[in-house]
Amino acid sequence: MIRGKIVLTGQLKNISPLHIGNASNDRSDMDVLLDKHNKPFIPASSLCGILRHKISLNIDDENYFWGFKADKNDNKIDGKQSIIKCMDLECEKFKLKIRDGIKINNQKGLIDNKFDYEIVEPGAIFNLKMEFSFADDDEQSVKRMASTVYTILDKSIQIGAKTNSGFGKVKLIKDNINIYLFDFKNKEDVYNWLTQNLSVKNLVSHETLGIPIEISAPDLFTIEANLQLKNSIIVRSYSDMPDMPDSIHIQSNNKNILPGTSIKGAIRARAERIAKSLGTESIIDKLFGYVDTVNSKASKARIKIKEVILPDFVSELQTRIQIDRFTGGTIKSALFDSMPLFVDMQKKVIKISISIPNCSKAEAGLLLLVLKDLWTGDLAVGGEKNIGRGVFKGIEALVKFGNDLFILDQDLSRISIDQKKKLQTFVDEFVLKKED
Protein backbone atom coordinates (compact mmCIF):
# COMPACT_ATOMS: atom_id res chain seq x y z
CA MET A 1 0.00 0.00 0.00
CA ILE A 2 1.34 3.45 -0.94
CA ARG A 3 2.35 5.40 2.15
CA GLY A 4 3.61 8.55 0.48
CA LYS A 5 5.00 10.31 -2.56
CA ILE A 6 8.16 12.17 -3.47
CA VAL A 7 7.76 14.71 -6.27
CA LEU A 8 10.71 16.14 -8.17
CA THR A 9 9.96 19.22 -10.29
CA GLY A 10 12.28 21.52 -12.15
CA GLN A 11 13.75 22.33 -15.52
CA LEU A 12 16.40 20.73 -17.68
CA LYS A 13 18.54 22.74 -20.07
CA ASN A 14 20.38 21.22 -23.01
CA ILE A 15 23.97 22.43 -23.03
CA SER A 16 24.78 20.74 -26.33
CA PRO A 17 22.70 20.12 -29.48
CA LEU A 18 19.83 17.66 -29.00
CA HIS A 19 18.31 15.28 -31.52
CA ILE A 20 15.48 12.93 -30.61
CA GLY A 21 14.08 11.74 -33.94
CA ASN A 22 10.65 10.60 -35.05
CA ALA A 23 11.55 8.80 -38.31
CA SER A 24 9.91 11.53 -40.42
CA ASN A 25 11.64 13.64 -43.08
CA ASP A 26 9.28 16.56 -43.66
CA ARG A 27 11.79 19.28 -42.78
CA SER A 28 15.06 17.35 -43.18
CA ASP A 29 16.29 13.80 -43.69
CA MET A 30 16.00 13.30 -39.92
CA ASP A 31 13.46 15.51 -38.13
CA VAL A 32 13.27 16.27 -34.42
CA LEU A 33 10.31 14.78 -32.54
CA LEU A 34 7.61 17.44 -32.00
CA ASP A 35 4.45 17.43 -29.89
CA LYS A 36 0.95 18.49 -31.02
CA HIS A 37 1.95 22.14 -30.51
CA ASN A 38 4.95 21.70 -32.85
CA LYS A 39 7.36 22.01 -29.95
CA PRO A 40 10.23 19.59 -29.29
CA PHE A 41 10.00 17.44 -26.17
CA ILE A 42 11.91 14.70 -24.37
CA PRO A 43 9.79 11.53 -24.07
CA ALA A 44 9.55 10.21 -20.52
CA SER A 45 10.49 6.77 -21.85
CA SER A 46 13.79 8.16 -23.18
CA LEU A 47 14.71 9.86 -19.90
CA CYS A 48 13.75 6.86 -17.75
CA GLY A 49 15.61 4.52 -20.08
CA ILE A 50 18.82 6.52 -19.71
CA LEU A 51 18.42 6.75 -15.93
CA ARG A 52 17.74 3.02 -15.65
CA HIS A 53 20.86 2.25 -17.68
CA LYS A 54 22.94 4.72 -15.68
CA ILE A 55 22.04 3.42 -12.22
CA SER A 56 23.84 0.21 -11.35
CA LEU A 57 21.58 -2.13 -9.37
CA ASN A 58 21.22 -5.87 -9.02
CA ILE A 59 18.42 -7.42 -11.06
CA ASP A 60 15.93 -7.69 -8.20
CA ASP A 61 16.25 -4.05 -7.19
CA GLU A 62 16.15 -2.94 -10.81
CA ASN A 63 12.87 -4.75 -11.43
CA TYR A 64 11.43 -3.45 -8.16
CA PHE A 65 12.09 0.21 -8.96
CA TRP A 66 11.53 0.23 -12.72
CA GLY A 67 8.96 -2.56 -13.08
CA PHE A 68 8.86 -5.47 -15.52
CA LYS A 69 6.49 -7.29 -17.86
CA ALA A 70 4.70 -10.52 -17.05
CA ASP A 71 6.27 -13.72 -18.36
CA LYS A 72 3.96 -15.21 -21.01
CA ASN A 73 5.58 -18.63 -20.55
CA ASP A 74 5.17 -18.66 -16.78
CA ASN A 75 1.76 -17.79 -15.31
CA LYS A 76 3.29 -17.57 -11.84
CA ILE A 77 5.38 -14.52 -12.72
CA ASP A 78 3.20 -11.42 -12.87
CA GLY A 79 4.37 -8.08 -14.12
CA LYS A 80 5.01 -5.15 -11.80
CA GLN A 81 4.38 -1.48 -12.35
CA SER A 82 7.27 0.91 -11.81
CA ILE A 83 7.25 2.94 -8.60
CA ILE A 84 8.69 5.83 -10.62
CA LYS A 85 6.40 7.97 -12.74
CA CYS A 86 7.68 10.57 -15.18
CA MET A 87 5.87 13.01 -17.46
CA ASP A 88 7.05 13.91 -20.97
CA LEU A 89 9.37 16.90 -20.74
CA GLU A 90 7.66 19.72 -22.63
CA CYS A 91 9.77 22.53 -24.04
CA GLU A 92 9.23 26.23 -23.32
CA LYS A 93 12.09 27.98 -25.05
CA PHE A 94 13.80 26.48 -28.08
CA LYS A 95 15.40 27.07 -31.45
CA LEU A 96 15.47 24.46 -34.23
CA LYS A 97 18.19 24.30 -36.85
CA ILE A 98 19.09 22.10 -39.82
CA ARG A 99 22.65 20.80 -39.99
CA ASP A 100 24.36 19.27 -43.01
CA GLY A 101 26.18 15.96 -42.84
CA ILE A 102 28.19 13.78 -45.20
CA LYS A 103 29.01 10.09 -45.34
CA ILE A 104 32.58 9.39 -46.40
CA ASN A 105 33.68 6.29 -48.31
CA ASN A 106 36.89 5.60 -46.42
CA GLN A 107 38.23 3.30 -49.13
CA LYS A 108 38.00 6.00 -51.81
CA GLY A 109 38.26 9.06 -49.56
CA LEU A 110 35.24 10.55 -51.35
CA ILE A 111 31.77 11.68 -50.29
CA ASP A 112 29.37 8.74 -50.49
CA ASN A 113 26.21 10.60 -49.58
CA LYS A 114 24.97 13.95 -48.31
CA PHE A 115 22.20 14.34 -45.77
CA ASP A 116 20.83 16.83 -43.28
CA TYR A 117 19.28 16.52 -39.85
CA GLU A 118 17.37 18.74 -37.46
CA ILE A 119 18.61 19.65 -33.98
CA VAL A 120 17.42 21.59 -30.95
CA GLU A 121 20.05 24.27 -30.37
CA PRO A 122 21.69 24.50 -26.91
CA GLY A 123 19.76 26.59 -24.39
CA ALA A 124 16.32 25.00 -24.74
CA ILE A 125 14.33 24.61 -21.49
CA PHE A 126 12.43 21.38 -20.71
CA ASN A 127 9.97 21.06 -17.81
CA LEU A 128 10.58 18.07 -15.55
CA LYS A 129 8.18 16.29 -13.19
CA MET A 130 8.88 12.90 -11.61
CA GLU A 131 7.00 11.04 -8.87
CA PHE A 132 8.30 8.30 -6.57
CA SER A 133 5.82 6.15 -4.60
CA PHE A 134 6.90 4.51 -1.35
CA ALA A 135 5.37 2.17 1.25
CA ASP A 136 6.27 1.55 4.90
CA ASP A 137 8.81 -1.15 4.08
CA ASP A 138 10.68 0.64 1.28
CA GLU A 139 10.60 4.32 2.25
CA GLN A 140 14.36 4.67 2.74
CA SER A 141 15.32 2.84 -0.46
CA VAL A 142 12.89 4.91 -2.55
CA LYS A 143 14.22 8.11 -1.00
CA ARG A 144 17.74 7.01 -1.95
CA MET A 145 16.56 6.39 -5.50
CA ALA A 146 15.05 9.89 -5.69
CA SER A 147 18.30 11.34 -4.33
CA THR A 148 20.25 9.36 -6.95
CA VAL A 149 18.09 10.61 -9.83
CA TYR A 150 18.53 14.20 -8.61
CA THR A 151 22.31 13.75 -8.38
CA ILE A 152 22.58 12.29 -11.89
CA LEU A 153 20.49 15.06 -13.47
CA ASP A 154 22.40 17.70 -11.53
CA LYS A 155 25.71 16.44 -12.92
CA SER A 156 24.23 16.14 -16.46
CA ILE A 157 23.38 13.17 -18.66
CA GLN A 158 23.26 12.61 -22.41
CA ILE A 159 20.07 11.66 -24.18
CA GLY A 160 18.94 11.13 -27.77
CA ALA A 161 21.00 10.49 -30.91
CA LYS A 162 24.68 11.24 -31.63
CA THR A 163 25.61 11.34 -27.94
CA ASN A 164 29.07 10.02 -28.84
CA SER A 165 29.56 13.15 -30.94
CA GLY A 166 28.75 15.44 -28.02
CA PHE A 167 24.99 15.74 -28.58
CA GLY A 168 22.17 15.49 -26.04
CA LYS A 169 23.83 16.79 -22.86
CA VAL A 170 21.14 18.05 -20.45
CA LYS A 171 21.47 19.40 -16.92
CA LEU A 172 19.23 20.59 -14.11
CA ILE A 173 18.78 24.32 -13.68
CA LYS A 174 19.48 24.56 -9.95
CA ASP A 175 17.43 27.69 -9.30
CA ASN A 176 14.26 25.96 -10.52
CA ILE A 177 14.50 22.56 -8.82
CA ASN A 178 12.10 21.57 -6.02
CA ILE A 179 11.60 18.30 -4.12
CA TYR A 180 8.31 17.70 -2.26
CA LEU A 181 7.61 14.95 0.26
CA PHE A 182 4.00 13.88 0.95
CA ASP A 183 3.43 11.57 3.92
CA PHE A 184 -0.07 10.10 3.65
CA LYS A 185 -0.20 9.54 7.41
CA ASN A 186 -0.63 13.30 7.59
CA LYS A 187 -4.12 14.49 6.53
CA GLU A 188 -2.81 17.83 5.33
CA ASP A 189 -0.29 16.06 3.07
CA VAL A 190 -3.06 13.85 1.68
CA TYR A 191 -5.18 16.92 0.91
CA ASN A 192 -2.23 18.74 -0.69
CA TRP A 193 -1.50 15.69 -2.83
CA LEU A 194 -5.09 15.25 -3.99
CA THR A 195 -5.40 18.93 -4.88
CA GLN A 196 -1.86 18.97 -6.34
CA ASN A 197 -0.98 21.80 -4.01
CA LEU A 198 2.82 21.77 -4.02
CA SER A 199 3.10 23.60 -0.72
CA VAL A 200 6.25 25.11 0.74
CA LYS A 201 5.53 23.00 3.84
CA ASN A 202 6.25 19.86 1.82
CA LEU A 203 9.57 21.08 0.44
CA VAL A 204 12.66 19.03 1.37
CA SER A 205 16.31 19.15 0.32
CA HIS A 206 17.90 16.28 -1.59
CA GLU A 207 20.38 15.76 1.27
CA THR A 208 17.55 14.66 3.59
CA LEU A 209 16.54 11.87 1.20
CA GLY A 210 19.65 9.84 1.91
CA ILE A 211 22.98 8.97 0.32
CA PRO A 212 22.71 8.52 -3.47
CA ILE A 213 23.36 5.06 -4.90
CA GLU A 214 26.97 4.81 -6.04
CA ILE A 215 27.30 4.82 -9.82
CA SER A 216 30.07 2.48 -10.94
CA ALA A 217 32.55 4.17 -13.28
CA PRO A 218 34.10 2.14 -16.11
CA ASP A 219 37.81 2.12 -16.93
CA LEU A 220 38.02 5.47 -18.70
CA PHE A 221 40.65 6.66 -21.15
CA THR A 222 40.52 10.42 -21.74
CA ILE A 223 42.45 12.96 -23.78
CA GLU A 224 42.11 16.70 -23.11
CA ALA A 225 44.21 18.36 -25.81
CA ASN A 226 44.86 22.08 -26.21
CA LEU A 227 45.60 22.86 -29.86
CA GLN A 228 46.27 25.96 -31.94
CA LEU A 229 45.00 26.45 -35.47
CA LYS A 230 47.92 26.96 -37.86
CA ASN A 231 46.18 28.79 -40.69
CA SER A 232 42.44 28.43 -41.39
CA ILE A 233 39.51 26.06 -41.01
CA ILE A 234 36.06 25.51 -42.48
CA VAL A 235 33.38 22.98 -41.67
CA ARG A 236 30.88 23.85 -44.37
CA SER A 237 27.37 25.07 -43.71
CA TYR A 238 25.20 25.99 -46.68
CA SER A 239 22.64 28.78 -46.98
CA ASP A 240 19.69 29.15 -49.34
CA MET A 241 19.98 32.95 -49.21
CA PRO A 242 21.16 34.41 -52.56
CA ASP A 243 23.28 37.14 -50.92
CA MET A 244 25.19 34.67 -48.72
CA PRO A 245 28.42 32.88 -49.70
CA ASP A 246 28.12 29.38 -51.12
CA SER A 247 29.49 28.01 -47.85
CA ILE A 248 30.38 29.45 -44.45
CA HIS A 249 31.77 27.87 -41.29
CA ILE A 250 29.13 26.07 -39.25
CA GLN A 251 27.62 27.93 -36.29
CA SER A 252 25.47 27.14 -33.27
CA ASN A 253 23.63 29.97 -31.51
CA ASN A 254 25.65 32.43 -33.64
CA LYS A 255 28.97 30.99 -32.41
CA ASN A 256 31.48 29.20 -34.59
CA ILE A 257 31.87 25.57 -33.57
CA LEU A 258 33.90 22.49 -34.37
CA PRO A 259 31.32 19.67 -34.39
CA GLY A 260 32.08 16.42 -32.64
CA THR A 261 30.99 14.65 -35.83
CA SER A 262 33.77 16.37 -37.81
CA ILE A 263 36.46 15.55 -35.24
CA LYS A 264 35.21 11.99 -34.92
CA GLY A 265 35.16 11.51 -38.70
CA ALA A 266 38.75 12.69 -39.07
CA ILE A 267 39.92 10.54 -36.16
CA ARG A 268 38.14 7.45 -37.49
CA ALA A 269 39.61 7.87 -40.98
CA ARG A 270 43.13 8.15 -39.59
CA ALA A 271 42.60 5.30 -37.12
CA GLU A 272 41.42 3.05 -39.98
CA ARG A 273 44.48 3.98 -42.01
CA ILE A 274 46.82 3.13 -39.13
CA ALA A 275 45.00 -0.10 -38.27
CA LYS A 276 45.01 -1.34 -41.88
CA SER A 277 48.73 -0.69 -42.23
CA LEU A 278 49.35 -2.96 -39.21
CA GLY A 279 46.66 -5.54 -39.93
CA THR A 280 44.60 -4.65 -36.84
CA GLU A 281 41.32 -3.59 -38.52
CA SER A 282 39.18 -5.57 -36.07
CA ILE A 283 39.67 -2.89 -33.42
CA ILE A 284 37.94 -0.18 -35.52
CA ASP A 285 34.39 -1.55 -35.45
CA LYS A 286 34.58 -2.18 -31.69
CA LEU A 287 35.72 1.38 -31.06
CA PHE A 288 33.86 3.44 -33.67
CA GLY A 289 30.82 1.22 -34.25
CA TYR A 290 29.42 -0.03 -37.55
CA VAL A 291 26.24 -0.66 -39.53
CA ASP A 292 25.96 -3.85 -41.59
CA THR A 293 22.86 -3.38 -43.78
CA VAL A 294 23.29 -6.75 -45.50
CA ASN A 295 23.14 -8.82 -42.31
CA SER A 296 21.06 -6.27 -40.34
CA LYS A 297 23.72 -5.87 -37.68
CA ALA A 298 24.97 -2.74 -35.98
CA SER A 299 27.07 -1.65 -33.04
CA LYS A 300 27.21 1.75 -31.37
CA ALA A 301 30.50 3.61 -31.11
CA ARG A 302 32.20 3.73 -27.72
CA ILE A 303 34.45 6.70 -28.34
CA LYS A 304 32.97 10.03 -27.18
CA ILE A 305 34.04 13.41 -28.57
CA LYS A 306 32.67 16.76 -27.41
CA GLU A 307 31.54 19.59 -29.65
CA VAL A 308 33.87 22.60 -29.39
CA ILE A 309 32.93 26.29 -29.32
CA LEU A 310 35.71 28.03 -31.24
CA PRO A 311 37.42 31.28 -30.23
CA ASP A 312 36.62 34.48 -32.10
CA PHE A 313 38.58 33.79 -35.27
CA VAL A 314 38.43 36.15 -38.25
CA SER A 315 36.18 35.09 -41.14
CA GLU A 316 37.08 36.17 -44.68
CA LEU A 317 35.30 35.68 -47.99
CA GLN A 318 37.36 33.90 -50.63
CA THR A 319 36.34 33.43 -54.26
CA ARG A 320 37.74 30.35 -55.97
CA ILE A 321 37.65 28.75 -59.41
CA GLN A 322 37.18 25.19 -60.61
CA ILE A 323 39.95 23.63 -62.70
CA ASP A 324 39.42 21.32 -65.68
CA ARG A 325 41.68 18.43 -64.74
CA PHE A 326 42.09 17.38 -68.38
CA THR A 327 43.19 20.71 -69.87
CA GLY A 328 44.49 22.35 -66.71
CA GLY A 329 42.47 25.47 -67.48
CA THR A 330 39.58 27.07 -65.63
CA ILE A 331 36.01 25.96 -66.19
CA LYS A 332 33.84 28.86 -67.34
CA SER A 333 31.12 30.06 -64.95
CA ALA A 334 32.39 27.66 -62.26
CA LEU A 335 33.13 30.30 -59.65
CA PHE A 336 32.29 29.62 -56.02
CA ASP A 337 33.02 31.38 -52.76
CA SER A 338 33.47 30.30 -49.16
CA MET A 339 34.02 32.04 -45.86
CA PRO A 340 36.53 30.10 -43.74
CA LEU A 341 37.93 31.15 -40.37
CA PHE A 342 41.49 32.44 -40.15
CA VAL A 343 43.90 32.80 -37.24
CA ASP A 344 44.88 36.26 -36.06
CA MET A 345 47.87 37.53 -34.10
CA GLN A 346 46.47 36.17 -30.83
CA LYS A 347 47.37 32.56 -30.05
CA LYS A 348 43.91 31.20 -29.32
CA VAL A 349 43.54 27.70 -27.93
CA ILE A 350 41.05 25.05 -29.05
CA LYS A 351 40.31 22.32 -26.50
CA ILE A 352 39.41 18.88 -27.85
CA SER A 353 38.02 16.26 -25.43
CA ILE A 354 38.02 12.53 -26.22
CA SER A 355 36.96 9.68 -23.92
CA ILE A 356 36.54 5.91 -24.21
CA PRO A 357 34.72 3.93 -21.47
CA ASN A 358 35.91 0.38 -20.79
CA CYS A 359 38.99 1.12 -22.87
CA SER A 360 41.60 -1.54 -23.58
CA LYS A 361 45.34 -0.81 -23.71
CA ALA A 362 45.34 -1.53 -27.45
CA GLU A 363 42.57 1.04 -28.06
CA ALA A 364 44.47 3.58 -25.95
CA GLY A 365 47.57 2.91 -28.05
CA LEU A 366 45.67 3.55 -31.28
CA LEU A 367 44.28 6.87 -29.98
CA LEU A 368 47.79 7.95 -28.93
CA LEU A 369 49.01 7.40 -32.49
CA VAL A 370 46.10 9.47 -33.83
CA LEU A 371 46.84 12.20 -31.25
CA LYS A 372 50.44 12.32 -32.47
CA ASP A 373 49.27 12.97 -36.04
CA LEU A 374 46.83 15.66 -34.88
CA TRP A 375 49.53 17.16 -32.65
CA THR A 376 52.15 17.41 -35.41
CA GLY A 377 49.80 18.76 -38.08
CA ASP A 378 49.65 15.54 -40.09
CA LEU A 379 45.89 15.12 -39.52
CA ALA A 380 43.53 17.88 -40.67
CA VAL A 381 39.89 18.42 -39.66
CA GLY A 382 37.06 19.89 -41.72
CA GLY A 383 36.80 20.81 -45.38
CA GLU A 384 39.22 22.16 -48.01
CA LYS A 385 42.08 20.15 -46.53
CA ASN A 386 43.72 20.00 -49.95
CA ILE A 387 44.60 23.70 -49.65
CA GLY A 388 45.91 23.46 -46.09
CA ARG A 389 42.87 24.16 -43.95
CA GLY A 390 42.07 22.44 -40.65
CA VAL A 391 45.67 21.85 -39.54
CA PHE A 392 46.59 22.16 -35.85
CA LYS A 393 49.67 22.11 -33.66
CA GLY A 394 49.73 20.69 -30.16
CA ILE A 395 50.25 22.93 -27.13
CA GLU A 396 49.39 20.79 -24.09
CA ALA A 397 47.49 17.60 -23.38
CA LEU A 398 46.33 15.61 -20.36
CA VAL A 399 46.02 11.88 -20.97
CA LYS A 400 44.32 9.79 -18.27
CA PHE A 401 43.93 6.04 -18.18
CA GLY A 402 42.58 4.60 -14.94
CA ASN A 403 44.81 5.97 -12.18
CA ASP A 404 47.60 7.04 -14.55
CA LEU A 405 47.98 10.67 -15.61
CA PHE A 406 50.30 11.82 -18.39
CA ILE A 407 51.03 15.50 -19.08
CA LEU A 408 52.26 16.35 -22.58
CA ASP A 409 53.54 19.75 -23.63
CA GLN A 410 54.43 21.18 -27.03
CA ASP A 411 57.86 19.55 -27.04
CA LEU A 412 57.05 15.84 -26.74
CA SER A 413 60.72 15.05 -26.04
CA ARG A 414 60.32 16.50 -22.53
CA ILE A 415 58.22 13.57 -21.33
CA SER A 416 59.96 11.60 -18.58
CA ILE A 417 61.50 8.25 -19.47
CA ASP A 418 59.08 6.36 -17.21
CA GLN A 419 56.06 8.00 -18.82
CA LYS A 420 57.44 7.34 -22.29
CA LYS A 421 57.81 3.66 -21.46
CA LYS A 422 54.27 3.44 -20.10
CA LEU A 423 52.76 5.20 -23.12
CA GLN A 424 54.80 2.95 -25.39
CA THR A 425 53.31 -0.15 -23.73
CA PHE A 426 49.86 1.00 -24.90
CA VAL A 427 51.13 1.39 -28.48
CA ASP A 428 52.85 -2.01 -28.29
CA GLU A 429 49.56 -3.59 -27.18
CA PHE A 430 47.88 -2.15 -30.26
CA VAL A 431 50.64 -3.36 -32.60
CA LEU A 432 50.45 -6.88 -31.13
CA LYS A 433 46.67 -6.89 -31.64
CA LYS A 434 47.15 -8.36 -35.13
CA GLU A 435 48.25 -11.62 -33.53
CA ASP A 436 44.83 -12.10 -31.86
Fold and architecture overview:
The protein has 436 residues and is an alpha+beta fold. The chain folds into 2 domains: 4-209, Alpha-Beta Plaits (2-Layer Sandwich), CATH 3.30.70; 220-435, no CATH class. Helices cover 23% and strands 33% of the residues. It has 8 helices and 28 strands. The chain has helices spanning 44-54, 59-66, 139-155, 187-194, 260-278, 282-288, 361-375, 417-431, and strands spanning 4-14, 41-42, 84-86, 89-93, 96-105, 110-120, 125-134, 157-158, 169-172, 178-183, 203-204, 220-229, 232-233, 236-237, 247-249, 251-252, 255-258, 290-292, 297-299, 304-305, 308-309, 314-315, 318-323, 330-339, 341-342, 349-357, 392-401, 404-409. Strands 1, 2, 3, 4, 7, 8, 9, 10 and 11 form a 9-stranded antiparallel β-sheet that branches. A 5-stranded antiparallel β-sheet has the order 20-26-12-27-28. Strands 14-15-24-23 form a 4-stranded mixed β-sheet, with no helix packed on it. Helix 5 (260-278) runs antiparallel to helix 6, helix 5 (260-278) packs across helix 7 and helix 7 (361-375) packs across helix 8. The longest helix has 19 residues, at 260-278. The chain is globular, with a radius of gyration of 26 Å.
